Amino acid sequence: MTGTAFDCEIAIVGAGPYGLSAAAHLRAAGMDVTVFGEPMNFWANGMPAGMLLRSPREASTISDQRSAFTLEAYETASGTNPVKRVAWETFVAYGKWFQKQLDCNLEQRSVFEVRRNGSGFKLTLADGAAITSKKVVVAAGIGPFRKAPEVFSNLSPTRASHCYEGRKFSELGKRVAVIGAGQSALESAAILHEIGIDVEVIARTQVLRWIGMHMRLHRLGPISKALYSKYDVGPIGISRLVAYPNLVYHVPIRLKDRIRTRAVRSAGAPWLIPRLQNVKISTGRTVISAKEIDGEVQLQLDDRTERRVDHILMATGYRVDIAKYKFLAPELVREVRQLDGYPDVTAGFATSVPGLHFIGATAARKFGPLMYFVAGTEFASKELTSALRRDRR
Ligand SMILES: Cc1cc2nc3c(=O)[nH]c(=O)nc-3n(C[C@H](O)[C@H](O)[C@H](O)COP(=O)(O)OP(=O)(O)OC[C@H]3O[C@@H](n4cnc5c(N)ncnc54)[C@H](O)[C@@H]3O)c2cc1C
C-alpha cells in the first residue's frame, strides 16, 4: 500500500528488459512499484529458438541502479561461461535472474485493461482482479506491432506466421519461404537450414546489407571509440549521437526520423554469412500472390516465377501503434497525444495523460533508436526515475 487511496504507487505493465530495469531503478529510489506480467515472456516465447543476440555483450546488460545485476554478474552467479555472442536462452535466463534480484512486487498475471480512475488508473487483470495505481508505466514491448504484408492475409495461420510468434521451426514443414532481408529473416533462414529444412529467402531489396562491413574502422582503438559508441547502434557518427537519447530528443523530428530509420535499416550480422552459404536467396523480388492449394502455398513472384512451399515465415518487422495494445482502453489511447502511432513522450517519458508513461520501442520516435534495444534501459530507467521522483516531491 502507498499510504494513498491507491493500491500501488507505480504499476509497470510488462516484465521484459525495460519493465524490469525501470522497477530496479524506481525501487532503489524508494518507490512502491508493482510489475505485471511473466518475466521475459516475449524473449522466452516470441523469439526464434536458437537465435544469438545481435547486440554486443556490452550492450546486452539490463540496467539497475548500482550496476550489480549485469550480464557478467549473472554469468558468475550461475557459472555460465561468458561467450562473445550471447545465446538467446542465456539472455532469457539472465532476465529471469535479474527479476529475482529485485525487491519489488511482481504480479505474474497479464493486464487485461488499463483505464483512467480519478487522478490515477484502474488496472483489470486477466483473471478479473482490479488494482488501482497512481501512475502507469507501459513497458509492453513490440509483440503486438508485427507487420504482415497484405499479400499473405488470406493464408491460414498454419501456412503463414510471423517470426516473432515463437513458432517451433521444426513444425513449419519441409519447405519454407522466409520473407525479409533483416537480421530476423537471415538468422531464421540460417536456423531453418541447419535443422534440415529446404529454405529460400525472398527479399525486395536488390542487395543484402551486412552490419559492420567496415570492421577495420572498429579496430582503430581510440579513433573507433570516437566514431562508434559501445552500443554499436547505427553507422559511423550516427552511432555516437544515438548513444545520447537526451541529445537526440532535441533534434528536429524529420531529421530524427531519418537518423532512426538509418540506424535500424534491414541488415544481417556478418557472422551469418557463412551460415547462409547454401541457402537460396532471391533478392530484388516481390511476392505478388499467395494461395493455399492442395495443402501447400503457391507463390507468384514479380518475375513470373512460382514457388510451392509448406510455410511462409514473415520476418517483415514491426510498426509501433499504441492502439494495438489491446489492454489500453480505447478512450485512454485517444487521450494520448501521438505521432503516427508513437506516443508523443516528453522528458521523463511522460505522455499527455498525467501519470501515464511509455518506455522502450514506443519512445524511439522521440528519444531515438537506442530505445529499441536493451542498451537503452539505462537511460530510460534513470530518466523515468528522476521524473517520478520530481513528481513525488
Ligand atoms: C528477433 C529479435 C531479435 C532481437 N535482438 C536483440 C538484440 O540482440 N539486442 C537487443 O538489445 N535487442 C534485440 N531485440 C529488440 C528487443 O525486443 C528489445 O531489445 C527488448 O525486448 C525490449 O524490451 P522491452 O521490455 O521493451 O520489451 P519486451 O522484451 O517485449 O517485454 C515486454 C513484455 O511485456 C509483456 N506484456 C505485454 N502486454 C502485457 C500485458 N497486458 N500484461 C502484462 N505483460 C504484458 C510482454 O509479454 C513482454 O514480455 C530483438 C528483437 C527481436 C524481435
Molecular structure report:
The chain has 12 helices and 17 strands. The strands form 4 sheets. Strands 1, 2, 3, 4, 5, 6 and 17 form a 7-stranded mixed sheet that branches. A 5-stranded parallel sheet has the order 7-14-8-9-10, covered by helices on one side. A 3-stranded antiparallel sheet has the order 11-12-13, with no helix packed on it. The longest helix is centred in the C-terminal third of the chain and has 16 residues, at 377-392. Helix 1 crosses helix 12. It is α/β, with parallel strands linked by helices and 393 residues long. Flavin-adenine dinucleotide binds next to helix 1 and helix 2. Residues 13-14, 16-19, 36-37, 41-43, 47, 53-55, 60, 110-111, 139-143, 164, 184, 327, 360-361, 372-375 line the site of flavin-adenine dinucleotide (FAD).
Q: What distinguishing features does this structure have?
A:
about 400 residues; alpha/beta; FAD/NAD(P)-binding domain; 2 domains; 12 helices; 17 strands; globular; binds flavin-adenine dinucleotide
Please give a quick description of this structure.
The chain is built from 12 helices and 17 strands.
Provide the fold topology:
Blueprint: E1 8-13, H1 17-28, E2 33-36, H2 41-45, H3 71-78, H4 88-101, E3 105-107, E4 111-117, E5 120-125, E6 130-138, E7 160-162, E8 175-179, H5 183-194, E9 198-202, H6 222-227, H7 238-242, H8 245-248, H9 253-263, E10 280-282, E11 287-293, E12 296-301, E13 306-309, E14 311-314, H10 330-335, E15 338-339, E16 342-343, E17 356-358, H11 364-367, H12 377-392
Helix pairs in contact: 1-12
The structure holds flavin-adenine dinucleotide (FAD).
